[in-house]
Design a protein that fits this description.
Distance between the termini: 11 Å
Shape: globular
Helix content: 25-40%
Number of strands: 11
Strand content: 15-25%
Number of helices: 14
CATH class: Alpha Beta
CATH architecture: Alpha-Beta Barrel
Order of helices and strands: EHHHEHHEHHEHHEHHEEHEHEEEH
Strand order of the largest sheet: 1-2-3-4-5-6-8-9
CATH topology: TIM Barrel
Bound molecules: 1-deoxynojirimycin
Amino acid sequence: MSKIKSLIWGVATAAAQTEGAYRTDGKGLSIWDVFTRKTHKIKDKSNAKVAINFYERYKEDIDIAVSIGLKVFRFSISWSRILPEGVGKINPKGIAFYNNVINYCHEKGITPWITTYHWDLPQKLQEKGGWTNREVINWYADYVTILRDHFGDRVKYWILINEGIVCMGGGYFLGVHAPGKIGIQNFLVSTHHLLLAQAKGFEVLKKKKNLKVGTAISCTKIEPYRNTSRDIKTAKRIDALMNRLFIEPHLGKGYPFQDLPILRRMSKYCIDGDEDKLKVDFDFWGIQTYTREVVKSTWYIPYLGALLVKPKYRNAETSIMGWETYPKGIPYFLNRFSKYDPKKPLWLTECGVALSEQEDDIKRIAYYREVISGMDSVLNEGINLKGILLWTLVDNFEWAEGYIPKFGIVSFDPKTLNRTWKKTAYWLKEYLSNIKL
Ligand code: NOJ
């Protein structure tokens, strides 16, 4: 049997992008509920108060995934739905909602995967400093304990933090994502706490036998613009930031400050024993990659000394996100992560392409065909890739880009919220039924 046939296919989603019901049944506010009040921060001035109302339509969405032939349904838990204040009193209706989602997945024969944190910190915790407050490590550990105790009997696969670099970079360095903080200090301190929290969350989950616990890492291939030593060094710096910072400390390799000197400042926030506490022996690593960046050296960008050479200046094909469409990043990163020690099973825990409302969905099919060929090549090289989770099932709230980019293989009507299969969904159903033959 060709190895590609053994891959497990699923779909990935996230609470803040899909659930809506932002105040229903006792949910507390999250930083995204508050951030979207500043409408100028969101391209189409939208918010996720309703989103695609997964809260009420979860059965329909799970049914669609099942009918396509998908085997994994990855969703995230909204922390403030479980703990409206971030800590303390549990909201029983929040627990009931996720129990329903999990139970329905089992009833329909699709495996539920939980992401514990997909960027929507409770606002109450933000008011106490959010990820910049070292206490967040305990807040997160207590929250994960609750998830483990309520859902760990029926959910085997867990992803702790989704894309650390994007939520820390966007939310605490550039201020383009919630909570809209800027500056290197905010970024460094919150990154350190996020990684420590993830390590502690791992310990908490592993207290329960048989759970498989991993992380989802955002990966972006970085290339130098010119073949000069300055641009090559610049590319290494940005690579350390984008692709190494959120995994190497967990592997016991410390922060990659040799290639990214600003990380030396991390020592300000480290206390004795932190380096050991950061070590995590994950059960698997989730790779998520969408694009590639080309960088050149510049003196006027502080700390990073890099300028992105936009895809339009290098004749590269871009998506509505303005990102270069780069499925070749998938085999590249699977290869690269397969060389880390210790070796771990790999999953593509997200991958996809955004199209505009007007574009023909055929382009998405072309994209996934390239993804399949990339996966096929790494499987033939013996790389331990287990499966692929598409981003995403239904178009949804794409953070600061609002509802403009369409990542889904299913669309929804903004007025009625009714779902409609796109060409990709039909194509995938056929592909999945054929590979089983
Ligand atoms: C990765 C993030 O996890 C997800 O939330 C986002 O929508 C996609 N990338 C596309 O940007």
